[in-house]
Structures are given as C-alpha cells and as structure tokens.
Amino acid sequence: METILRVEDICKSFAGNQVLHDVDFSAEVERIHALVGENGAGKTTLMNIIGGIHQPDEGTVYFRGEPVSFANPLHAMNRGISIVHQELSLVPNLSVAQNVFISGQTNEMVPRQKVNRFGFINWKELYADTRDLFDHVGIDIEPTTMVSKLSVSMQQLVEIAKAISFNARVLILDEPTSALSEKEIDRLFGVIRELTRKGVAIIFISHKLDEVLTIADQISVLRDGRMVDTVRTEETSRDEIIQMMVGRHIEDMYPSKSSGVGDVLFSVEGLSRRPYFHDVSFTLRRGEILGLAGLVGSGRTEAARAIFGADALDAGKIMLDGKGIQIKSPTNAIQHGICYLTEDRKTLGLFLKMLVRDNIVSAALNRFTSQLGFLRRRAIQDESMHYVDYMQIRPPTDEVEMISLSGGNQQKSLLAKWLSAKPKVLIADEPTRGVDVGAKAKLHTDLRKMAEEGIGVILISSELPEILGLSDRVVVFREGTVAALLEGDQATQEEVMKYATR
Amino acid sequence: MQQVALMVLCVVLALGMQSQFPKYLNLDNVEIVLANSIGDGIMALGMTIVMITGGIDISVAAVLQFTAILVGMLMNAGAPIPAAIVVTLIAAAAIGWINVTLMRIFNVHPFIVTLATLLTLRGVNIVITDAGTVTGFPQQFSAIGRGYFAGVDHLRNSVVLFAVLAVITGYALKNHRFFQEAYFIGGNRRSARMSGIKVERFLVFTYVLNAVLAGVAGIVISSQYMAASISFGQNAELRTITAVAVGGASLSGGTGTIVGTVLGWLFLAMVRNAFNMTGVNTYWQDVVIGVVLAIAVFFGEYLKRRQVTR
Amino acid sequence: MTKTPGAYGASGRQAATDLLRKVLGARTTTLFLTILVVSVMLTIASGGSFLSSRNLVSVLMGMTYDLLMAMGMTLVLILGGIDLSVGSVLGLSGVAITMMMSKHQPYHVGIPGAIAVGLAVAAVCGAVNGLGVAKLKIAPFIVTLSMMAVARGLGTVWTSGWYISGLPDAYLVIGQGTFLGVPYPVYIALIILAVFSIVLQRWKPLTQAFYIGHNPEAAGLSGMRVALVTGAGYVISGLLSGLAGLFMTSRLAMGFFQFGVGAELNAIAAAVIGGASFVGGSGSLVGTFLAALLIAVINNGFVLLRGDPNYKTLVQGLIVFVAIAVDAYRRRKEIRE
Fold first, then answer.
1. What per-residue confidence (pLDDT) applies to C8?
2. I need a surface site. Which of A164, B209, B285, C17 has the fewest CB within 10 A?
3. Which of A84-88, A189-193, A355-359 has the highest mean pLDDT?
4. Any idea which fold C28-41+50-336 has?
C-alpha cells in the first residue's frame, strides 16, 4: 500500500509548552487510520501541522515521498491534504454548490470557479459538477439547497465533499461524529468507506473507541505528545488501546486525601438540559473533593454552568445543606454560597485590564459594601493583600494589572477571587490549566485545604492524573450523563477511561 | 419568506390607499411616490452590500449632500455637465476610500469611522455653501431628475437609472463570483480569509462603491430640485439602513438581497407618501421609521438566533 | 485606567501608589495644560475679551449642556455601549416641560409638575434604550439611533414646529438666575459632576459598570446584575439629557423641537477625549469634564475671533476625529505592551 503521507520527528511547542515530542506517523491510501489519545495528547496539533495550519518546530512532513512545507491551509488543500474541522465553516445563506466551489483562489490543478470569462457564475456547470462530486462521494443532497436548511450532519457531508473537490488524497476528519445520530454516523461511515475505495487516505481523530474499532484499519495512540504505538485494528483490543492511552506513572505528588468525610453537603438529582446533558445526579460530602472526569464535550462544564445558574435547567433538583434550592442566576448562586471557577480564566473569569485587587473582590463586592452601598476601600485593600500573601501571588502587590501576571499567578488570583466570595461549594473547572508545575502544586494544596475547612469542592479536569490524584471520589461523565461513580481505590486511569469512552 | 411578506404588505398598503384616494394608483401619483424616494433607493443598493459584509456606513447622507453641492458648484463654475458629474463621482469614491482606510488604520468599527466622516463632511458642506443654497444650474441638468425617459410619460430618467442600477447590482450579487465574497466575508470573516478571499480588497471595493452610489443619489437629487443645500438628505442614512434591514439584511452580516432591499425601499417609499397624502403630520415619519428600524433589526437578530442549528 | 510598570519588593507598594497617582494625572494634566494654553492664546488673540466675565459665563454655560450629556455618555461608554439619542431626548424633554407649563398650551400643569413630566419622559426614553440593549440584545447604536429619530420626531409632532413660549417667570429663574455672576445650571452641573464622580468610583451598583463594560460575560459569572446596571446606565443618560433640556429651555425661555440637534457628537467627543473608550471598561468623569471645558473654550474662541460660523460644524467633526484617533492610539499602545 502506498504510504502517501509520512511525518518524522515532529516537535511543536506553544508558549513554552511542548505539545509534540518526536512524533512519527504515516498514512496509506485506501486505508482508514485512526488517531486516538486523551484530551491534550496532541492529536489536533499534529493534524493541524499536517494540514498547514501550524508549522512544526522540528521534523519533516513527507507527502508522496517528498518533503513539503505548507505556508497555510489553502496551500495544503491545493496539494491534496484537507482537514474537515469540528466547527463547520459553510456560509448559511448561499447554496451548497456555491459553498463547495466558489472560493477565493483558483486551483491551478483543478478548475474550480465555474465561471465564465467575465467572472459570472455558470450555474449549469456549477450544479452539474456539484452533482457529479456528490455522486462520486456518495452523498444525496440537491446542489441548489441553501446551507441554512441543512442539518449539521448534512453540512458535514458537504464539507467533506468540498475537501474532496480539491482532489484531496489525504482527508483528515477531526471528531466527525460528535454531533451525529446513529443513523447519520452509519451514513458517514458509508461515505468514508466509499472514499477509501476511490483511493483516498483517511485520518480519523476520535475519542469514541468503539467507533474507531469498527471503522479504522489502523490505530495510532498519542499520549502526552508522544506517539506510543501504531497497531492494526484486527490485532488489538479496546483494553489494550486504553492501556496505551493512559499507561503512565502518576509522578506528581498530590496532597494526601481526606482523613474524614462528613455528611452530605450538596447534591443534585436528575439535572437535564438537552441536548447538553441529562439525568445528572451526584452527592458531595463535607470535607471531600469530588472529581468529575470525562472527555471534552461530555457535559461536565455545561452541568456546572447550569448548577451555577448561568444556563437554565430543563429539569432537576438541587439540595444544599439538606434543603432544596432554586438557582435562577449566578447572582442567586453566589448568594447561596455556590461558586463556579470558570474554565477559561481570560475570557470568563478575570478582568485583565483591571488591577489584581479589583479582580480578587469582583465576586464578593457585597461583602465590602456599607449599608448605603458604598465600598469600604480599606477593607477591600486588606482582603486583597491577604489573598496576595496567602496565595503567594507574584509580584506581591495587588496594584498591578492582571494582564501583567503570569498564567500561574492569574490562576491563583482566580482562585483567590472565589475564596473571597466565601463559598460553601466551589466548582473548580480546569483550575490548573495552563499553569506551571510549581503553581499547580500550590493550587492543589489550596483546594485540599479548602475541603478540609468544610468547603465542598467539585473538581472538573481533563487531566486524568489530576482528577485521580486529588479527588476522594470520581464521577465519570460520558455523552452528557453520569456513566459511573468510582470510590477511592476503584478509581484508576483504566477504569475511568473505560467508562468515559464507548 | 420575508420578501413575500413585504410584497403582500406593499400590495395591502396600495389597495388601502387606493380605497381612500381613488387616484392613488394613477401614474401621476406613482411617479411621485417613486421620485420622492429615489435617492434613498440608490443608496440602499450600495448599503445592501456593505451590510452583507457585516459593516455599516452612516456617512452616506453627508456624501449625498456633498455631491449634490459639488456637482452644482462645478457646473456653476462653468464645467460641462458630464465633466462635473465625473469629477463629483470621483470625489465620492475618494470619500469611500478614506472611510475604509481609516477603518483599517484605526482598527475601529465601521460605525465609528463613518460617524466621524459624517460629521466632518457635514461641516465641510456648511462651509462651502456658506449655509446657503446653490442654484443656477444649466437647464439640461434637470433631465436626470425631472426628464422623462425616451419621452415616455411618467417614466422619469432617475427611476430608469435606479432600475438599471438595481438590476445590475442584483444580478451581480447573485451571479458574479467576486460579489459573492460579500456573503463569505459577512458569514465568517476568518474562514473567508482562509479560503483565499482577499478580504481587505473586497471591503475597499464595497465602501467605495457605496460612496459612489451615494454620489449618484446626490446628483439625481440636485437635478430633481435644481438646487443643492445642506438641508438635503436629512435622516437619509436612517431611511436607507431601515430599507435594507426591512428587506432582510442582518446587521451582523451574511444575509441580504437586492430584491429584498428594493421591496423594503418600496414599502418605506409608500409609507412616506401615505403620510403626505393623508395629511398626517409628516413629522410622525421619523418616529415611524425609527420604530420600524428597531423592529426590523430585532426580528432579524431574533430569527437569526433561532436559526442556529446545533 | 491605571497602569503601573512592575513594582516589586516591600516598598513596591508605596512606589506603585505614587506612580499610580502620577499616571492617573497624566491625562488630566494634559487636558488641564491644554486648556490653560488655549485660554492664554485666546486671551492674547482677543485682546483680553476672552477673560471678560460675560465671555467666561458664556463658556461655562456652553460647557454645561455638553457636560451633562457627556457625563451620561461616559457611563454608557464605560458599559460598552453608546447613546446617540441624547440630543433628541434633550429636545423632547424640553418640549415636554415647556408644553406642560406654557400659558398658551392646554395642560397648565404648574412648574413642579411640568418638570416631573419632562424628566419622566427623559427617563422613559432612557429606559426604552436600556431595554433594547440589555434585554433584547439589539446593538446599542441601532437602538439609540432609532430613539434619536423617534424622540426628535415626537418633539416635532407635538410642537408642530412652533416655538413654545409663555413660560412662567419662576421657571426662568432656574436657567437665568445667577450666583456671583455665574448661572445656576453651572453650579448644579458641577455638583452633579462631583457627586457622580464619587458615586461612580465608590458606590457598588455603579462601580460594577467598569467590570461589565470590560468583560460582560465574566461580570455576569461573577454574580453582577449585568442587565440591570446596563439598563440603569441608559436611564441615567436619559435623565441627564432631560436635565440639560430643562436648563436650556429655562435659560432661553422657550421650548423648541430643534434644541440639542447634533449634541450627541460633542458628548461622545468629550467622553472619549476624557478617557472613555468605545470598547468599554474605561472612562473618567473628571476627564470628561475637562474635555467638555476644552471643547467649550475652543468653540468660544471660534466665536470670539469671529470665525466664520459656518466652520463650526467642521471643527466639531474634526474634534470627533481627534477623539477617535486618540482612542485608537491608546488601544494600540495597550496592545503593544
């Protein structure tokens, strides 16, 4: 089988973080090659390099045996490598045919524009060519249809056809089944198999191991930016793949787990907000850290937001201290003592152009307001400096702009902000994302301290070692609902992965 | 969908007016309805493309004033009519180019830059006319705004001009590869750039074209009134944007058609005329237009949000 | 907003505070100096008549109307929005007040009633703006552009284009009365400035505006009532415009639907030059005040030196351009840091 694509020793770093280490990978025509790995393993980065979106720091990409370097994605598309991303990029108010063929540049190899000499569109030719393309790919969509009328799965098929229209020899699909129903997935697989028969090499990134085992001929496993191994599907098993995905020693030291856990502090029952999550139930006891594990998109953040009142619930009950409560807005939630440390600190959690001090008290202003509504300056200053010391924020002053702090210090400030709000329950969503090792350890210790002081901590994290190292119990999410509840010893990487994937 | 609704509205309004004023559908009246709003119509054509790209240009009213004044002054200075027109249109193009260049340099929203241009241009207009009116144009000039096409009664040259421009822009927007870029840029600018579309180049084209069309409108208006003053084009930007919004374009870009805009314009022109005819205080017009704009935009955004399929 | 270079160490806090105070004054100092310089130049150029008490009063009065609206505009800009309707609301509320108390009109509501009606009208306009922006999530410039047309139109319709006269003398005292030679409205505006300034910095419900304008999602997720504060901002802007309408009609002893035409642009210019940004999250009432004063001085100088009145609008336009350029420059500098 012709190896049409090969990458060798690829290394890539972003802002000092090395994301890919000496990765080798190859794809053959007429084969479906799956790429799997945990969140953050580097799959998307690797594909983006192949597709021309990023440049590798080291290493070479070989296409058809020759080293290539793509300046931008269009360049790669013209040469024959196309990516279909998770976010669709079709223009809703134009027809399917226009979306497929009308773009900015003419491809020298394939006449795309379907226009006459003066630039006017030749509709007959456009629709005919689109129909031919769709037949070739095996899709049944009328070329004149307005994109806005198509379902997501149909739009995706159009995107695939569009990629093929560039005479793609390598087609990369990034998590193509995340928004599809069973039937639509079958149809997609049909199309993919048809394409393989026509000589295309398909690379398929996915979390869903069952699907991968069904459709792929080969599976490559990435872990922490390194290629673990590539195996043929018929020679491997689900367990073996999981082992490869997670098999590592938990080297980091985590603070010791809870010594004694109290009564139930907080519980949720039957939370639903379709299509994001449904029937989510769990309890949180005083003094414990409850971890919510699961793949990206499994509904943890959506559930957290709904609990916090940022999104509306379709159904479900929330109980705090034994009493049922209604949470209608974040203002409401904070009044009850439920706080949510957001996933994305820069856009959702911090006010970058404001001072550290302003940030730290931003969720707790009510505590520093006098009867008449005036802010007590002194009290605010004391509070913010208290946290600057407590959290060891550098530089040790609260009068600099938040944006000048390093990632780790920003994250510490974010945690300080929520501590200042005196929560009873804190949902921490990716609290150590983008943070250096030292700050990470400090944040872990702080979270454990909080739990010991009686604050209920719910931890959402995509880093398996972190969840396992920090949590007393783990709730595993899968596709919007709770798949398992693992106690103490039960919670191992393999167990979590087993329930997190299908 | 929206276009059908608009057509129905226009028909209903026409029939309603006809029942009150038996002479409504007379060609005399139709001629007036169209001629009174022809400036707005021409500007709406350019504004449609601007709004499809997700931008806006509120300086058009001032451009209309400016070109009306400029063409008049040039003719008064002795320039032959064609030359005056050409120079004026070039000046309009220059203003459009200034707008889009400032947008790029200052990296600000189109609204803000065109707001500043609006004010400055208005100031310039006051200065050059000495707050007065420019008159004394050569008689042939009135042919554009008042003359009849090929001698056909009631069919003004300006209306024919508008129709021709509408057909050209409408056809181009639907069928020409370059014009389609407006939809791509308005739909998803980043993705458009990644597809190889030269976004900056298209935006320059759009705002220059828009200014030139405003210039054409200015020339037509000054020809119609055989005068030019700073009182022209009051609230014209409001009416133009409203016509385009009612016609189906969304403020955030990606939608809009010339057909829709023309229908929206027609509807507003009829409403305006209805005010005049029924003797309702014409000052109510602004109120109504303001409300209509808010409603049109609200519905546009509301429907767009409902449409998000996920 | 304030900036400090990294200040470390135990004494860092002290150094940071000092530097802060100095930097906070940078913009204010520039404005102050500019006003001083321009004033001096005008005094010389006008042979001293710039400093005549009559002229200074004229400057202060001219500034007062703009200042009131600019204060509201500052708040709205801090919130990340804009209010194009201020001039029209000034006109409409002025019309409402004078209509209510004029002896030629049928209402005869009496002075306090008339003022209440006028301010209520202004507040309602602001509330409608606020509703459109905060609840219906329509772009602020469209909402307030609509309101601009609607309010102006309503004012025109109500008066049918006529002046409103026949106002009771007691009412005229508000705008025409003076203390130490300076008209009452100037004092009132300055008092409002002082109070508003303190309140904006220290009163929780309004200070939140800075957070909200800077990052509305984060503000909402921090428990702030974004919609409420945003709506309130527009109501305040409306009320201040209404107050300006009150002063203008009282001082000029008439109601006129054209009052306030074009005022929004001066208000925007003053707010932006004074430190507000179109992207939201920043603004300074003191800066706005100085900017309004500067603009008033420039406009006055124009008249004084017998500048062609036709150039007035042009000058205003250029001032707005300056405001935009300044804001863009400030933002560029921030990005580079």
1. 36
2. C17
3. A355-359
4. ABC transporter involved in vitamin B12 uptake, BtuC (1.10.3470)
- Locate the chain B residue with the closest alpha carbon to C148: B290
Here the tokens at position B206 are 């759009």
- Residue A130's contacts (CB-CB under 8 Å, 6 or more residues apart) are A96, A97, A100, A101, A143
What pLDDT, on a 0 to 100 scale, did the predictor assign at position B51? 94
Interchain contact, A74 vs B195, CB within 8 Å: yes
Written as one letter, the residue type at B49 is I
Residue in the structure block whose two tokens are 């208290």 = A386
Torsion over CA of C160, C164, C166 and C167, rounded to 10 degrees?
140
C155 Cα to chain B: minimum distance (Å): 9
SS (H, E, C) C94-120: HHHHHHHHCCCCCCCCCHHHHHHHHHH
Q: Which of residues 68-87 of C touch A (CB under 8 A)?
A: none
Q: What is the pTM of this model?
A: 0.83
Predicted ipTM? 0.82
Taking each helix axis from N to C terminus, what angle separates C184-202 and C285-304, rounded to the nearest 10 degrees?
A: 150
Tell me the average pLDDT of chain A: 86
Those chains having 3 or more beta-carbon pairs within 8 angstroms of chain B are A, C
Nearest CA in chain C to B301: C138
Domain count, chain B: 1
DSSP string covering B182-234, please? HHHHHH-HHHHHHTT--HHHHHHHHHHHHHHHHHHHHHHHHHHHT-EETTTTT
What value does the CA radius of gyration of chain A take, rounded to a whole number of Å? Answer: 26
Q: B151: domain range?
A: 2-309
Mean pLDDT computed over every residue of chain B = 86
d(CA B262, nearest CA chain A) in Å: 19
Which CATH number goes with the domain that contains B276? 1.10.3470
- Whether residue A145 lies within 8 A of chain B, CB to CB, comes out as no
3-state secondary structure (DSSP) of residue C2: coil
Provide the pLDDT confidence category of residue A103 given band limits of 50, 70 and 90: low
Q: Which chains touch C (3 or more CB pairs under 8 A)?
A: A, B
